[in-house]
Amino acid sequence: YYVITKRVNGKTSLRTAFRVTMAGQYFNSITPFAAGGQPFQVYYLMKDGIPVGRCANIIMVKSVLFEICVFVISVVSFIFSAGILNRIIGKFTMFFIIGVTINLSVIAFFGLFLLNKNAARKVVDWGFNLLGKLRIIKDLDKYRKRKEDELEGFRGGSELILSDRCVIVKASFYQILNLLLQYAIPWFMLVSMEGNRKYFFEIIASQAVLREVTAYVPSPGASGGAEGIGYFFFRNFFVASPIVSVILIWRIFTYYLNLVIGGISLVFIRSKDKKESIIIEHGKAA
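RE: above sequence
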């Protein structure tokens, strides 16, 4: 977020990037389809003085890069391990095709908004309406008058970020590193619980496909779907450990910690903001 926001807006802070990240982690974890994070991410970007059109652009670019990186990792790891995966996991290729199809559909959906001005207008309208319903923006009519300016900001931000290959490569590197660390968690669990150092690429591929298939399960944190499909995958790697325990530990690392750390971080940030606003008000009064 820091790399993308700095390029689109010209300046930002690591604190804002941290806020935006924590908001996404927390609110995506507690809402169906992981759809609650983006409005709050826009809110925290706006608090840093960034116009809402550019905020929408930043979130959209990050979403596209995220989905592309998920796709690249799943395809590359599948190429290296397709034979073994199809042997130890029944119908794995079917899961892979389903996951990649969903992933490409989402990429096309987000890409449409980045490249099409009319679609971008709908995004900004949707963002204004949602922020108004959530009472994050109180005077909705006042902001609607600035819609065209925000649309120009959205379009300008898209042209800026898409023309800068260095920023795209840098942001993609960080995103791929982040995803690989997440996907490798079951492998580290396998090493620590059973001493088995095999199946690194196979676990990476299975985690990528698992993420693609369960990302849009209509329950907070993909609850139910992630555990069910995770059981189908993990039982083929963990042969000496209780699978229920494996899934529980895996979900603690990949889901419940998002809730705990994300929630604590946002509470701390909010309380710090209140203290700063009080200090500013006292300074003005003095």
